[in-house]
Design goal:
The structure is a single chain. The chain is an alpha/beta fold. 41% of the residues lie in helices and 18% in strands. A seven-stranded parallel β-sheet has the order 3-4-2-5-6-1-7, sandwiched between helices. A six-stranded parallel β-sheet has the order 8-13-12-9-11-10, sandwiched between helices. The protein is globular.
């Protein structure tokens, strides 16, 4: 036992360690103890999945709280998911059994009676989501002051899931607003199993404060890794495609049905579809149905059933999930994880890989890609998802590389949201006072100018989102009052229209759109038929049936980083056959290498297909592909003689009246600076991406899109380079 750290812990923590029969403390726990107890800095605990990060943070914090009790809640834990908070609540409750320190969950599913008891006692540990903290500061700022007037620590779990997102910006704003309201400057403790750019993470955690952030627990992945990749291609012939789907489903079933595992999917629809197919196969084979679905549109009760089965079942359990099981919910020890389709990012791959192998020390992950071979676009004969999968794996194996976090340059949507939230807290503010409170929040310092904020306020006033009083003060307007009075306002991520699916008074889950009466669909791994619809309450009452229709949900795929695109090109150029590839994946990779060499896209960014269409394959990330698409569809459309444009995540295909040499010369001569960025979009294009973009003027909306979604200099560099290749 590491006596130095162990002997410093409070007696109730020592007793807890003895009850758990721990032989020693882990390295990360010793390091975190020193960092938290011997310094006054913020601390990032960056250690692998199941390495003891939660205990590493809470053991020393609770010890300090025991030695010098707080007169309010002493530790605020911010978790990205309700399920993660519920899971951590159980862990902390067990830890605090022998202490006088209470722990309180606080989110939308927690009973008001529990929250009232927390307010009356006003001490211990409080666990909350960013959205519930937003609601508290907006609607009950007095409760926030009472609860946190002597706050010592703020724990932010899974900080990699917040950095670079609107929700992360919101969290930083909330912390600053809380510090100002309470005149209290707690230390921040960030937890993550998936960090690469530590400088960026330290700057993010310390934003808006006078303290520095230090990092502890950095260590190389000590588990061994077993990877396997298999690939399936659907032929054009319908009968052959049906046979391939049968083989695909049997392959998946045989690989997973005797294990405790998660099948990670990039979409809710795919998660539902694969479980429907596996359930049908189990029924045909007269074998046990061990299959669950876990995603954000499945009811909380059914998600909890899946989590409990994974955690507690002695036999096989298979759950198809989206990112809802990617984060640190305790689901016990898994035999393996599966990835259906290519992971969008290395971060996601590492996070999902780490969900298995806790007991054995060997993380096992199987990737299974399924691609259509489409007749109308020859480039789709290339198995892009297989290439992306290999690129992600190789970047991690060779360099331990994961995507760096990048803060949004122009977060106007969050700016509009925080403006309304601030006015909800204070009622009426003069414009200068409002600007002083909002523009000094860490999300906007150095990124939003006074002139841009004036444009935003002017537009919100014109649209009755805000209202100006006779004395010049600003309050919430009629439209703003309607928006802020709904619970969905507390979040800054997109909310889809929600229809609740009910069977025998129990919620099955939600849909983004309302089906027709008698329509059938699959949700939570089962088929349902609509009986009646309550449009006013947005309730859909159903009965179980047999059916195979998968509903669709809204949502955007993730962007592909430039490093991944470049590594895909390298995969095609080298001759290596990676040892983790299955038999079909080896064959499909060999075919892809031959196709791309014959097409010339490895040497030349711009080629002409057999039907006379241009193909631009620059091997760059999503932002550059998106920017070139905008240019060809707008600013350059006439001068370059552009017809229709098709953009895939990997390449662009378009028609042009120009000969290749003339096209190259025009591209090489193109002059477009960042100052001309607004020209990238046609005047009528007003793309809304973020939740509160509808509150922006056309000018700000286009500025946000250009700054946040496009890469002008990168796109121009690609076009300049066409002639050189």
């Amino acid at each position: 036992m590491s006596k130095t750290a162990f002997e410093r812990y409070a007696p109730f923590i020592q007793a807890y360690i003895y009850r758990k029969n721990w032989a020693d403390l882990r390295e990360v726990q010793v390091e975190a103890c020193d960092a938290i107890m011997d310094t006054d800095q913020h601390v990032i605990i960056a250690s692998g999945t199941a390495s003891g990060k939660t205990e590493a943070a809470f053991f020393p914090m609770l010890t300090l709280l025991e030695e010098k009790p707080s007169t309010s809640v002493g530790i605020l834990y911010i978790g990205p998911l309700k399920a993660l908070i519920n899971d951590q609540f159980e862990r902390l409750s067990a830890l605090l059994d022998d202490s006088d320190i209470p722990v309180w969950p606080w989110h939308g599913d927690v009973a008001q009676s529990v929250k009232q008891r927390a307010l009356r006692q006003g001490r211990g540990v409080l666990q909350i989501t960013p959205e519930s903290l937003e609601a508290m500061l907006m609607q009950h700022s007095g409760d926030a002051v009472k609860l946190f007037r002597d706050l010592r620590f703020v724990v932010i779990d899974e900080i990699h899931a917040l950095m670079g997102t609107d929700r992360g910006l919101q969290t930083l704003c909330l912390l600053t607003r809380l510090e100002r309201a309470t005149n209290c400057m707690p230390r921040r403790i960030g937890l993550s199993a998936t960090l690469h750019e530590y400088d960026t993470a330290q700057a993010w955690l310390a934003a808006g404060t006078d303290r520095q952030a230090t990092v502890t627990g950095i260590q190389v992945h000590k588990r061994s890794i077993a990877l396997h990749v298999e690939s399936f291609l659907l032929p054009k012939d319908e009968q052959q495609a049906a046979e391939t789907m049968r083989v695909y489903n049997e392959f998946l079933y045989n690989a997973c049905h005797t294990q405790k595992c998660i099948l990670f999917s990039n979409s809710r629809g795919k998660a539902e579809a694969v479980i429907a197919d596996l359930k049908e196969l189990a029924q045909r084979r007269k074998e046990a149905d061990v299959f669950y679905v876990h995603h954000g549109s499945v009811s909380a009760d059914l998600r909890h059933d899946a989590e409990s089965a994974l955690r507690e079942s002695k036999g096989p359990v298979v759950a198809a999930a989206t990112l809802t099981l990617e984060l640190g919910i305790d689901i016990g020890d898994l035999d393996a994880t599966f990835q259906l389709g290519a992971p969008f990012s290395c971060i996601s791959f590492v996070q999902r890989l780490g969900r298995s192998g806790r007991r054995t020390g060997k993380s096992q992950m199987m990737f299974v890609t399924l691609a259509d071979r489409m007749e109308e676009r020859p480039m789709d004969a290339i198995p892009w998802e297989l290439l992306q999968t290999i690129a992600v794996i190789q970047l991690y194996l060779e360099e331990r590389w994961v995507e760096p976090s990048v803060q949004k340059p122009k977060p106007f949507s969050v700016l509009a949201h925080q403006t309304l939230s601030t006015l909800m807290t204070y009622g009426e503010l003069l414009p200068a006072t409002l600007a002083a409170r909002v523009l000094t929040l860490p999300a906007f310092q150095g990124s939003i100018t006074t002139e841009e904020y004036q444009l935003l306020l002017r537009h919100m006033l014109e649209e009755d989102i805000l209202e100006r009083m006779d004395n010049g003060g600003i309050i919430i307007g009629l439209k703003g009052a309607k928006v802020t009075s709904h619970y969905s306002f507390y979040s800054v991520f997109q909310n889809e229209e929600t229809w609740h699916v009910i069977h025998q008074e129990h919620e099955v889950g939600t849909l983004d759109s309302c089906p027709a009466a008698q329509e059938a669909f699959i949700l939570a791994g089962r088929a349902w038929q609509v009986l009646t619809i309550d449009e006013e309450r947005q309730m859909i009452y159903v009965k179980p049936i047999k059916n195979r229709r998968i509903p669709s949900w809204h949502g955007r795929g993730g962007d592909i980083h430039e490093r991944i695109a470049q590594r895909m090109r390298h995969v095609l150029m080298e001759d290596t056959m990676y040892p983790y590839l299955g038999q079909q994946a080896v064959q499909h990779l060999a075919e892809a290498r031959e196709i791309t060499r014959q097409a010339g896209i490895l040497k030349h960014q711009l080629t002409v297909s057999t039907d006379g269409n241009y193909i631009l394959c620059p091997w760059r990330g999503s932002k550059i592909i998106r920017t070139i698409h905008c240019l060809l569809s707008g600013l350059l459309k006439e001068s370059f003689g552009i017809g229709r444009v098709y953009a895939s995540p990997y390449y662009l295909q378009f028609s042009s009246t120009l000969a290749p040499e003339a096209f190259s010369e025009l591209a090489k001569a193109l002059q477009l600076s960042e100052d001309d960025a607004q020209k990238t979009l046609s005047p009528e294009k007003k793309p809304t991406i973020d939740k509160y973009d509808w509150m922006l003027s056309d000018t700000l909306l286009q500025s946000a899109y250009v700054a946040n979604q496009l890469d002008i200099s990168g796109a121009v560099a690609v076009l300049h380079g066409i002639a050189d290749t």
